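Worked example

This section walks through a single chain of length 249. The input is the sequence exactly as stored; nothing has been trimmed or padded.
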Amino acid sequence: MNISFEIVPRTAAATEQQMQFIAEQLPFVNTINVPDLLRLPIRSWDGVDYVDSNKYSYIPHIRSIDFDMKSNRLQQIIEEKELDKILIVTGDPPPDRSFRVYPTGVVELVRKIRQDFPEIEIFCGFDPYRSGVQQEKEYINKKFDAGCDAILSQPFFDIRLMDVYADFLPADKVYWGVSPVITDKSKAYWESVNKVVFPKSFDASYEWNINFATEVLKHCQKTGSHCYFMPIRIDLERYFLPIKQSLSL
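Given that input, the structure is written out below as C-alpha cells.
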C-alpha cells in the first residue's frame, strides 16, 4: 500500500516544515504530491527540490491547460527536473490574464507524454462528485487507454460511494483521496464548489474525520489499493497521530 501526502507549497519554509513533520512523525508516508497553484511562489515541478528522492516518490501536478501541444515545454521540464512521475489534471482557470492557457485536454496530453517518455509513470485524477458514475467511469477509461498508469481521486467522504467505484476500478491502480473537513465553513465550501454530498453521519470534527481516514486505510489494506491524503489547514499532529496509532502504521 502506498500512502501519499499532498504538500501545498505556500512558502519554502512551510514546505520544509511539512516535510520535516512527515519524516519525523509519519514513517508510513512514501509518496509526496505537490499541486500546481499559480497564486503560490513554488511551481509543482520545483517542489522536487524539497523532497528526498531516496525516501519518497515524488508526483508533481501538471495542469494540461498551461501547455501548448505544439511546444515541448512540458517535455523540457520533465528532462530538466529528471521527473519519473507526473500527475496530469485539467487545472482551474488562472487567477488573472497574465497566465496564458491553451485548449489542451488531459487525455491528449497523456497520450503525447506517454509517446515521448515511455518509461515515465503518468497519474491522472478523478472526481466522484463531478458527474454521474457512468460518465466518470468512461472518462477514467479514456485516460487509461491514453497511457495513464494510475489514478488519484478527489476526496471521498462516504465509504459507500468508494465501494461503488471500487467495483470497477483496478485496486492496485487507485489512490483513494481523503481530506479532513473540520469546520462548517469548509463543509459548505465542499458542497457549493465541489458538489460533495456528505453522508448523514458526517460531523465536522477531528473525531469523525480520523475515524473515516482509518476506514479508508483499512479498505486499502484489504484491497491492495492506495491512499492519498490532502490535509488542508489542520493540526497535523491532532489528525495524523491517532490514525497512526489506531492502525499501528
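What to look for: The first strand starts at residue 3 and ends at 6.
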